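Budget justification aside, the reviewers requested a transparent look at the raw inputs and outputs of the sequence design task funded under Objective 1. We therefore reproduce one unedited record. The lines immediately below are the structure tokens for a 249-residue chain.
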């Protein structure tokens, strides 16, 4: 079912296009025919309950879980069976759920790790300056060991690290998870800024309200399937979405 404008048809402006993706964990059929698109300049959000298959969708895109069926295209190229390092090199960067920083390394060293696959090292300083401009808090903490920072600061560092790859598509897995409300607002502000600077974003979130407020379009996922899709503003006023994900009756 689609809310508002149609979202299922591929167009040439698609940065990312998943078509009928099926992923299994052994005998568990985790994704049962997922199709979604991210267009140039868009923030697209994927919302849904625990276990719906959101992280698995990201793992299919970043090459960690190879689909058994279906296709994934990135900037027109078929990446369905490409290995993770090739996918990173092609321009997809992810800030993973749980952050996974190098806890004993400093903030600056963690950011440097984000650029390790790049060949154009001459722009490195410019990019680290851009990250510090987006996250002044990280500049203040630049020499601190990442593992000793607060959850919100670590999340900023993880997003900053992903940006150091100069991604052409940014995947974010639950960037607001476990953060104090003030950090949640800050993180969403920064996502809007990053997108405003031209990077398309696929945002997986359980905080459906914030996600739908920030995104252009959204997909609702239930038990391995997309059950609703459309403009974020329309999903926000959809009765079923309000009941299931926005806590409204
Ligand atoms: P959450 O918000 O809790 O991370 P999710 O929407 O991201 O949920 P997934 O983590 O993608 O959901 O899980 C989708 C389904 O696949 C669930 O039924 C889950 O139990 C199963 N699953 C996920 N990872 C594995 C794994 N490594 N082995 C077996 N089953 C898995």
């Amino acid at each position: 079912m689609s809310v508002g404008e149609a979202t299922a048809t591929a167009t040439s402006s698609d940065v990312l296009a998943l078509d009928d993706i099926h992923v299994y964990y052994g005998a568990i059929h985790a994704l049962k025919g997922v199709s979604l698109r991210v267009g140039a300049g868009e923030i697209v959000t994927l919302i849904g309950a625990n276990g719906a298959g959101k992280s698995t969708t990201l793992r299919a895109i970043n090459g960690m879980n190879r689909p058994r069926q279906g296709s994934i295209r990135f900037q027109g190229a078929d990446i369905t069976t490409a290995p993770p390092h090739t996918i990173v090199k092609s321009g997809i960067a992810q800030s993973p759920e749980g952050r996974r920083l190098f806890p004993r390394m400093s903030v600056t060293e963690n950011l440097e790790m984000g650029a390790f696959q790049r060949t154009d090292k001459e722009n490195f300083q410019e990019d680290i300056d851009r990250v510090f401009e987006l996250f002044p808090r990280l500049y203040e903490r630049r020499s601190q060991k990442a593992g000793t920072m607060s959850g919100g600061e670590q999340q900023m560092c993880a997003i900053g690290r992903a940006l150091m790859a100069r991604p052409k598509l940014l995947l974010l897995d639950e960037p607001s998870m476990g953060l104090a409300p003030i950090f949640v607002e800050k993180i969403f502000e920064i996502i809007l800024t990053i997108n405003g600077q031209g990077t398309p974003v696929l945002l997986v979130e359980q905080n459906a309200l914030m996600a739908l407020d920030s995104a252009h379009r959204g997909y609702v996922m239930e038990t391995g399937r997309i059950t609703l899709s459309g403009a974020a503003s329309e999903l926000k006023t959809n009765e079923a979405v309000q009941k299931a994900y926005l806590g409204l009756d």
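The CA atoms of residues 58 and 177 lie 16 Å apart. The pocket of adenosine-5'-triphosphate is lined by residues 25, 28, 30, 48, 50-56, 206 (CB under 6 Å). Computational costs for records of this kind are itemized in the attached budget.
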